[in-house]
Each structure stands twice: as C-alpha cells, then as structure tokens.
Amino acid sequence: MRVGLFITCLVDGVFPDVGDAMVQLLRRLDVDVDVPLQQTCCGQMHINSGYGSLALPLIKNQVRSFDGYDVVVAPSASCVGSVRHQYEQIARARGDERLVDEVLALAKRTYELSEFLVDVLGVTDVGAYFPHRVAYHPTCHSLRALHTADRSVRLLAAVEGIDLVALSLAESCCGFGGTFALKNSDVSGAMLGDKVECVVQSGAGFVTAADSSCLMHIGGGLTRVGASARTIHLAEVLASTR
User: Fold this and answer.
1) If you placed Cys at 159, which of 14, 48, 128, 167 could pair as Cys (CB 3.0 to 4.6 Å)?
2) What is the mean pLDDT of residues 66-92?
3) Distance (Å, rounded) from C-alpha 158 to C-alpha 96?
4) Per-residue pLDDT at 178 exceeds 90
5) How many other CB atoms sit within 10 Å of the CB of residue 221?
6) Pairwise CA distance, residues 57 & 181, whole Å
7) What fold characterizes domain 133-239?
C-alpha cells in the first residue's frame, strides 16, 4: 500500500512538528509513507470564502499530486472534509465531468489520520506512551463532516500512561471556523472563551484534537488567560514513546 501524506498548508507552514510526528508514527507501524512535494493548499480557504472558481487550480493540483497513491492521509479533519464534500460540488458547478470523476476517486481514498489508523490499518494501540492528563476536543469537522471523533478517543484511550479526562461541552465549537474567526471576531472570541474555561476546569495539562487550526485557536486563548494547559496534536501524542 502506497501512502501519500497530505500535509496541509497550516502544518507545513506553522506546525511542522505535526507532520514529523505523522511520519514517525506511520513508519513505526510499517507504513510506506511519502510526501509529494507538488502539493499546495487544498483550496478549502477559497471555497469557504466564496471563491470556488479560484480553488479550481488547487483542486486539480491536489488530484495530480496524489495520483498513483493507494491512500492519502492528512492530520486534519477539516482539510479531508473539504476533499470529501466540497471538491465534487465545485467540479460539478464547473461542468467538468472528468474532474468530477477524479475528485470522487480521490475522496474515496483520502483519510484523516485517526480514521486511517482505526478503519484502514485496524489498530487502536499504536504503542504510544504519554504519561499526562489530556482532554480531547472533538473538532467540528471530526464530529459533523467525517464522523470520526470516536476513532481519536479509541486511540487515545489505548495510550500507555495517559489520563484521559472528559471535557465539558466537548462537542461545542471552539469558535475558529477559518475566516469565521476573522469576520466574526466577537462571536468567535466568546465561543473560544467558553472552550478555554472548559479546558481549565478539566484540570488537563494538555488538550488535543485532530486539527491544528482549532488547536491554534484554543492555544491562543489559553495563553491569554495565563492557563498552564498546552495544546498538542493527536499525531504528536500517538507518536510519543518511552
């Protein structure tokens, strides 16, 4: 099985340790993983902002970049959700039937990390060791677009040494939502405040999720209130060993 790592632009540009953790984890599980250098932004930002036509070159590049890979894996439920659900809409609106077929084929073999581990590899215990108190934030795309949040919980529960604690109002949005946080900053800030309060009340030393974007938002909120809790991507927890 040839696996292509869909690194996402946020991980590539801001959180490269997440990408490194994914490679370490997958190689530890004897997965032959490659990072195609032709990939760029997947176009989700453009689509969500109403510029679907401008996303077309990015969608076509995504198809070309991962041509020949049996499976595509990403550390982002948000970006995978875009490939799964938005690409087809854009291709059909364009009237490009060939592109429709290509994006449908790509969508079928594109997975969020936890989904790939549990549903494709059939593993929940990845040999991780993380002796800390951790709260899990199920991101909106994990819950409502991919329905994969339970995979992350199963993986975390199998980590040796972890103290996995419940997060109050866990299924509430953190308020990021990409450009939503910029265009509706007051509402976003209020939602973030609620999420940060729940993290603090949990007593967790770390909060984890399947999306770096949400963790970036939550991490900023935690810093501003002087909380000791830190954010860490699911891939980094699962890549940790003794």
Assistant:
1) 128
2) 96
3) 45
4) no
5) 23
6) 26
7) Rossmann fold (3.40.50)
